[in-house]
Amino acid sequence: MSGYEEVFASVVTFVSSLFIIFGGVLPYLPQYLQIRKERASEGFSTKVCLVLLVANILRINFWFGKVFETPLLVQSIIMIFTMVIMLEICVRMKKEHPLSGNKKRGFSDFDSNYFWKWTDFSDYIQFLAVFTAVTAAATSLFVKNMYYVEAVGTVSLITESTLAIPQLLKNRENSSTEGMSVKMVLLWFIGDSFKTLYFILRAAPNQFVACGSIQTAVDIMILYQVLTYEKKSDRSTT
Predict the structure, then answer these.
(1) With contact defined as beta carbons under 8 Å apart, do 111 and 53 qualify?
(2) Nearest to 204 by CA among 80, 73, 58
(3) Is 11 strand, coil or helix?
(4) Exposure on the CB side of residue 215, measured as CA atoms within 13 A
(5) Between the N and C ends of the chain, which has fewer C-beta atoms within 10 Å?
(6) H helices of 66-164, where?
(7) What distances in angstroms separate CA 140 from CA 46, 62, 81, 114, 235, one per listed residue?
(8) Could you give the CA distance from residue 117 to residue 127 in angstroms, rounded to a whole number?
(9) Per-residue pLDDT tens for 140-195?
(10) CB of 120 within 8 A of CB of 88?
(11) How many C-beta neighbours within 10 Å does residue 107 have?
(12) Are the C-beta atoms of residues 220 and 170 closer than 8 Å to each other?
């Protein structure tokens, strides 16, 4: 390989790493701005935040047992902070516009019927602190057990691969994509497609490739929902 080719390859690798690190959080910027502008978060499923928080906490645990590329680790850390920010604004908007008859619910109630439907943001932080502490303790005990490590990696990536499913189900429940940022889903699709290709080219663990493929498929299904519900809305207004 010539000097120019080495420089070009280095630049491509650097740019790809930056995209992997920051590309995953970009889709949530338009959704955040839309929620802030409309002062409502009903169109966005906070279970997307739950899925990504759980998946990335587990992925960090996976890294301690099976070190993978640093950009993927940094991406997980940044994604956790991003999802906490998204969760905070969603909870705040719901508190500003509470539904009549709703009682205050908290993590300490231990009521499975209201899991991830708590009233205060602090309850979500309590859950994340407990989940992080439990998984970290388990990893510290079994980090040398490769069956455990592989299981954590697999669960992490299977969980992440379902990140768009809560939004898909919420759209179906509402029979609408109103309140959901279409830009977010388009960026999901672009990012997941690129990410899957990156995983293949960089010979990342098979779990990463499977995760990216499933995510891309669900993105396409949500974009189909956008077209379907828009057509129904157009017919109902004519």
Answers:
(1) no
(2) 73
(3) helix
(4) 29
(5) C
(6) 70-96, 121-142, 146-161
(7) 30, 11, 23, 31, 58
(8) 12
(9) 999 999 999 999 988 988 888 888 999 999 999 888 888 899 999 998 898 888 77
(10) no
(11) 21
(12) no
